């Protein structure tokens, strides 16, 4: 009896019917993507914990997600494991961890008392975070980057926005009663942070190669960092409130530094005569 299909030959004419062979992938290429997946899991878990009224754990989960999401790209570069797949995964994780998760945690904890206004504020923040991330991705893909891009962000970066927008929750943990009046103030604050995300405010990034620290200040700064982490572990919410306030107060300093260099109050263009942005979507539309 004849079989309906010819027998398989490992390297015969039927081998092509199997499709392309799957090649083995080095483990170092998987590690950054695993960190990204863990970040998404932490962000989504933070949302679940918020709906279960376990707010402190929810905030910790969101902050852990933001931390993991912030280091996966650096880990990929250190391990020389960058890939287009990882970049796409990271972008999808960013909108969850920096936009959706913080917005929902703040809404469940406080903004729901402001009814529709609270929900609108949460929506505005989540959309603003998405727009901020999209603008960052477009600017990162520019072939000719302006010299200031290594020193300044355009608007508050999304990871910092996630930390800032949770300020009403930190204050609630310190004993401030989540009243209706507090909810309306929280909604206004949430919209303010959303505006800072999509604004063209120059925010100092500290990533420039020209940013240097005097040798005699290295050890004191390292000691100060140790003290900060120790205080953060012992007085978490007090330190987070101080950190948010200090960050907000530092924004005018970055804008002032930009004004001294380029003579404008906001980033309106490339500020670099060697960069042509005539065909730049950011320059024309945003």
UniProtKB/TrEMBL annotation:
ATP-binding listed as a keyword: no
Compartments where found: Endomembrane system
Record-listed E.C. numbers: 2.7.8.8
Keyword Repeat attached: no
Catalytic activity: a CDP-1,2-diacyl-sn-glycerol + L-serine = a 1,2-diacyl-sn-glycero-3-phospho-L-serine + CMP + H(+)
Spans traversing the lipid bilayer: 29-49, 55-71, 92-110, 116-134, 154-176, 182-201, 213-231
Pfam families the record matches: CDP-OH_P_tran_2, CDP-OH_P_transf
Domain of life of the organism encoding this protein: Bacteria
Key words of the record: Lipid biosynthesis, Lipid metabolism, Membrane, Phospholipid biosynthesis, Phospholipid metabolism, Transferase, Transmembrane, Transmembrane helix
A single GO molecular function term of this UniProt record: CDP-diacylglycerol-serine O-phosphatidyltransferase activity
Class of this enzyme: transferase
Topological relation to the membrane, as annotated: Multi-pass membrane protein
Domain CDP-alcohol phosphatidyltransferase C-terminal, residue spans: 217-252
PANTHER family on file: CDP-DIACYLGLYCEROL--GLYCEROL-3-PHOSPHATE 3-PHOSPHATIDYLTRANSFERASE-RELATED (PTHR14269), CDP-DIACYLGLYCEROL--SERINE O-PHOSPHATIDYLTRANSFERASE (PTHR14269:SF61)
Family: Belongs to the CDP-alcohol phosphatidyltransferase class-I family.
Name assigned to this protein: CDP-diacylglycerol--serine O-phosphatidyltransferase
